[in-house]
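COMPLEX REQUEST
Ligand: zinc ion
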Amino acid sequence: MPDCVFCAIVERRAPALIIHENANVVSFLSIRPYVYGHTLIAPKSHHADLYDVPTAQLAHLIEEARILALHYRKRVGAVGANLLHASGAAAQQSVFHFHFHLLPRFTDDGHDAWPHLPGARESREEMQAALRFG
Ligand SMILES: [Zn+2]
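STATUS: Structure written out below.
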């Protein structure tokens, strides 16, 4: 995708502070790090979102998240990780090249990465009836 900034990073047409890469994925520091070590994990092939990314590529991305978490634990003592993702404009996705945000976490770092949302108005039973398969 010619105008995609993450494709440009993959192809070295745009700068990035790359942490790790392999044949399938590239991981680099966010340009606006929320926390120490905030890393974006993206496939080297262009896929817009969760609706679009092939399952095999998704497996590579999750594997990369684990590789980074293990590396950050060993390298800088990050003993936890939050993995965040947005698919679609309705979910506040801003770069339409699939990616995860990995937020390394440290004991007593004081951060709260959990979403603060108002809670569903519908009952759980209503939701199950509407959402379940079959
Ligand atoms: Zn792209």
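REMARKS: The chain has three helices and five strands. The first strand starts at residue 18 and ends at 21.
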